[in-house]
Each structure stands twice: as structure tokens, then as C-alpha cells.
Design goal:
It is built from 16 helices and 18 strands. It is an alpha+beta fold. The strands form 4 sheets. An 8-stranded mixed sheet has the order 1-5-6-11-10-9-7-8, with helices on both faces. A 5-stranded mixed sheet has the order 13-12-14-15-16, sandwiched between helices. Strands 2-4-3 form a 3-stranded antiparallel sheet.
Length: about 525
């Protein structure tokens, strides 16, 4: 038996359903903000990450999976997706052909050689967005609001937005000089990584997690004291927009992020559970001023963020956010004999074509065993098909929660399921309005332009009758949908008695029924 590679894991069954649920929410929310999907290769030339992520970052120095291919080229499994997305934008000349900003979102696997821990693996999946062509603080604020909106949609409460700014180029240069003077007096006391960061990019020292170093960092100069007036105003505008949007935040002057391409505003989303457990950052990002130019594009700026899917799913599971989430099956079909397998399969295909999640038991099981299988699959209804049902062209539907069951004609199964599986309070008119009556198109002065007091409904029914299962009112007459009565000769879709005419294919008269055939005299 083969074991997993250390730092990887299989995503299967319920966990895979949770991944999909999270990804669907993140994707749908990004589309609301005008973002479009990018899928870039897992393999990139190593130079891309050296130029963009930066030699001083821990990712480049310690965590990249890099190898020489058969043509002696240095190739790297991508450790993050921002650089590849920007490379794709530049390669495809999208900045020359589209109005700014260009909005991209992505989902996919990354690879980093780091110590595996809860929600963190050596192969992990990220969702992220990049907004390229940013010309003002409003775009940075919109990106931050998107991230906060997504976490809210996922069900996270107690999210703390931490935000800081690295200022403009002059702000950073002045600040780096101040940091060099300060840390040069403490460097001997600090870890080897900090000594390396001091040479490559001193801002990286602020991101050190070593406890002893943190005490020294606490007394280091703060970027706020070195911001130019322009950089300060830019940051204050972002904060003002967040205030107006009622997005709570904390200004963290030590926040720098771990990638060299960041400049200007940077931010992290931190989460504290309902029980008070601090999970730290569950998403982060920032503004980049030179990244596009670094990978060969024009001198334009951008901003973005990323969230680890494993991290989100782990925290949501741990904190009970997924407690009410289970993948549901609509109907589990239970043929009581092999003789009814074909009928069950045909019905399953019809239901699936209408969008219902259906499975058929094709194993020779007793009915009690089939009920257990249905419950294990979280089916809402069991559909029982036996000899009686085959002879009468019906099916028994049993609600597996309430244990109630009904016998339904097969010709009305779609209609029945629609109303059983869709709560009454969610039922809306097909025109988009919620009306007091149950017409499939609308009420008085409805946007479908029908008056249902003295005009026929667009579905072809008169609403001056009693209720029937189709949602229309019919006096003591049988409904023209699926009830007993004299079938229309021409279309077999309608039942007719004293309220209806009998139609045929004979062209003897000029009056026509709903199918277009003439009426018998």
C-alpha cells in the first residue's frame, strides 16, 4: 500500500463537498464585483518568482519546490498565484486591450515546503483576486470590502480586519533608514533569519515570529511617523471608505506581509471563534506598485488578496460553521425487484434532466436495507417502485424526515417534487413577483401583463375555480393538468367535461384548442 507524501492530503466525500461549497461562495461573490476567472499553469519559470516574490521572502529562500527540467531550465511549482496571474495578463497583452481596472480571480493548488499544521499543507489550494490598473485608494478599499463580504457570506463572525500602509517609495526609503539604525544595535540578539533579512530587505524583520525578536520589534520605529503627506492621505481615504461601509478594522503598524512586491496598503483578515479561540490570519493581501513592471508589463499598479481553502474549511469545521451543511440527495429510488430496475433508471434519467439529484438502488437489497442506504446518503425522499406502482403508473414518495408518504402519478412527479422540495415561503411567480394567489405567472397588473380576474392566465387556465394541484382555481371541474377526465383527442394534455370542448385533428371548424387543431362540430 502506498502512503501519502508528507504535507499532502486527500480531499474526499464530505470534506470535498465543503471545499466545493466554500469555492462556490467565493467565486459567486467575486463575480458580483466584476471579476473574471484566470487559470494559469502550476509550473512557471523560477525567475518569475525571484523577480516578483523577492529574494528576501521566506517563500523564495526556504519553501519553493524548484527543479531543472530535461532541457536544463529551472522550473518551480508555483508557491502562490499572483505572480502567474500578472504574468498571464502581461503575456496576453490584456492591459493594452481593456479599460482599467482588469479584475481577475483564481482558484488552484500551490506548493510550499513548510512545516505541516492545521489547515496548512505543502500542497494547498488558494482563492484570490487581483485588481490591476489601480489609480486611487477607492479600488484598494473595494478589494478589502470584497474580502470582508466573502467571509461574511461564508458565515464568519468576529472577523478583525488588520490594516497598515507601507507608504509610497519615499516613505519606505526613509523608514528603512530608521529601521537600520534601530536594528543594527540589536542584531546580535536576534535570530539568523533576521540577520539575513537585515541585508536583503529590512522590512521583513517586522514579520518575524520568534518570541525574543518580537520584544525587540515592539520598540522599533513605526511607519506612520515616516509617511509623506500624499501617502498619509491615501491611507486615510481608504480608512474613511471602510468607516462609511461599516467595515470594522484595526490599524497594525507592524503589519508588512511576507512578499516583497507589496507597497502601500496591506491587510489581513483575522478570526476569533465563538468560543474565543484566535485562529490568526485566514486571508491577506495588499497593494503592489512595481509588480506588473517587474514581470515585463507597463508601469501600472494593482492590489489583491488570497485565502487558503484548506485553512477556511478547517476553521469553519472546527468552529461549527458547517454543522448545518450536508450534501443532500433529492430522491433515492428503490425498485423492489430486479424487474423494475429499467423503469427506475428511466425515471432517474428524467428527474436528473430536470435538475434533481437522484440515485437508484441497483443492488438486490431488502426494503429496510434500502431505506438505510437512502438515509446514509442524506436523501430527502425515498421513491418506492413495486408491482402495484408499475401497473398503475405511479410511485410512492416517502419523506425520510417526517416519515409521511404519498402515492404520485408518474406524469405529475416533476410538479410534485417541485412543490415538495421548494418551501412555500420561497415560491415566487415565474415573472419574479410574489403574489397572493398561486398563478404560475402573476397577479393583477403583474409584470406578465395579465389580469387574472377577467382574463385567462398565460398558462391557459381560468382562475375563477377552486384550487387544484397545479396552482389554478377550477370550480368542480377537473383540472386541465393531470387529473381524471376526458382527455383531449388532439394533444392528450387536457381533461374536458362541461367546461371544456373536445378537440380533434379534424379541420372542420375555425376554432382552435391550445395545440392548434380545429374543433369538432
Amino acid at each position: 500500500m502506498y502512503s501519502l507524501v508528507k504535507g499532502t492530503h486527500d480531499v474526499i466525500l464530505d470534506e470535498a463537498d465543503r471545499y466545493t461549497a466554500v469555492e462556490n461562495v467565493l467565486t459567486a461573490t467575486a463575480k458580483l464585483y466584476g471579476y473574471r476567472e484566470f487559470r494559469t499553469p502550476i509550473l512557471e519559470h523560477t525567475e518569475l518568482f525571484l523577480r516578483s516574490v523577492g529574494n528576501s521572502s521566506d517563500i523564495v529562500r526556504k519553501e519553493m519546490y524548484t527543479f531543472m527540467d530535461k532541457s536544463d531550465r529551472s522550473i518551480t511549482l508555483r508557491p502562490e498565484i499572483t505572480a502567474g496571474t500578472i504574468r498571464s495578463i502581461v503575456n496576453n497583452k490584456l492591459l493594452a486591450n481593456q479599460d482599467f481596472p482588469l479584475k481577475a480571480y483564481y482558484i488552484g493548488p500551490n506548493f510550499r515546503y513548510e512545516r505541516p499544521q492545521q489547515g496548512r499543507y505543502r500542497q494547498f489550494n488558494q482563492f484570490g483576486v487581483e485588481c490591476v490598473g489601480v489609480v486611487g485608494p477607492e479600488r484598494d478599499a473595494e478589494v478589502i470590502i470584497l474580502g470582508y463580504h466573502q467571509l461574511d457570506e461564508l458565515g464568519f463572525e468576529n472577523v478583525t480586519l488588520k490594516i497598515n500602509t507601507l507608504g509610497d517609495e519615499k516613505s519606505r526609503e526613509d523608514y528603512k533608514e530608521a529601521l537600520k539604525q534601530y536594528f543594527s544595535e540589536h542584531l546580535d540578539e536576534m535570530c539568523s533569519d533576521c540577520k539575513e533579512r537585515f541585508k536583503l530587505n529590512i522590512l521583513r524583520i517586522l514579520d518575524c515570529k520568534v518570541e525574543n525578536d518580537r520584544k525587540i520589534i515592539e520598540n522599533a520605529p513605526k511607519i506612520i511617523d515616516y509617511l509623506t503627506d500624499e501617502a498619509k492621505q491615501y491611507f486615510e481615504t481608504i480608512c474613511k471608505i471602510l468607516d462609511e461601509s461599516e467595515i470594522p478594522y484595526v490599524i497594525d503598524h507592524d503589519l508588512v506581509r511576507g512578499l516583497d512586491y507589496y507597497s502601500g496598503p496591506v491587510f489581513e483578515f483575522h478570526y476569533t471563534s465563538k468560543l474565543g479561540k484566535n485562529y490568526g490570519a485566514i486571508g491577506a493581501g495588499g497593494h503592489y506598485g512595481k509588480l506588473v513592471k517587474e514581470v515585463g508589463g507597463p508601469d501600472v499598479e494593482g492590489c489583491g488578496f488570497a485565502m487558503g481553502i484548506e485553512r477556511l474549511v478547517s476553521v469553519m469545521t472546527d468552529d461549527g460553521i458547517f454543522d448545518d451543511f450536508k450534501a443532500k440527495m433529492d430522491v433515492y429510488l428503490m425498485p423492489l425487484s430486479k424487474d423494475y430496475y429499467h423503469a427506475a433508471l428511466c425515471l432517474a434519467n428524467d428527474l436528473r434532466s430536470d435538475g434533481y439529484v437522484v440515485e437508484v438502488c441497483l443492488e438486490n437489497k431488502g426494503i429496510s436495507q434500502m431505506f438505510k442506504k437512502a438515509e446514509r446518503r442524506n436523501a430527502r425522499y425515498a421513491g418506492i417502485i413495486g408491482e402495484t406502482e408499475i401497473l398503475t403508473n405511479t410511485i410512492i414518495l416517502k419523506n425520510l424526515e417526517t416519515k409521511e408518504q404519498i402515492t404520485v402519478p408518474l406524469k405529475s412527479i416533476i410538479y410534485t417534487l417541485e412543490h415538495l422540495l421548494k418551501p412555500e415561503e420561497e415560491s415566487e411567480c415565474c415573472c419574479g413577483d410574489d403574489h397572493e394567489h398561486e398563478c404560475c405567472c402573476g397577479d393583477d397588473d403583474c409584470c406578465c401583463e395579465h389580469n387574472h380576474e377577467d382574463d385567462d392566465c398565460c398558462c391557459g387556465h381560468d382562475h375563477e375555480h377552486d384550487d387544484c394541484c397545479c396552482g389554478h382555481n377550477h370550480e368542480d371541474d377537473d383540472c386541465c393538468c393531470e387529473h381524471d377526465g376526458l382527455d383531449c383527442d388532439c394533444c392528450s394534455n387536457h381533461s374536458h367535461d362541461e367546461h371544456h370542448q373536445v378537440w380533434s385533428h379534424d379541420d372542420k371548424d375555425e376554432e382552435c384548442c391550445c395545440c392548434g387543431h380545429k374543433k369538432d362540430k
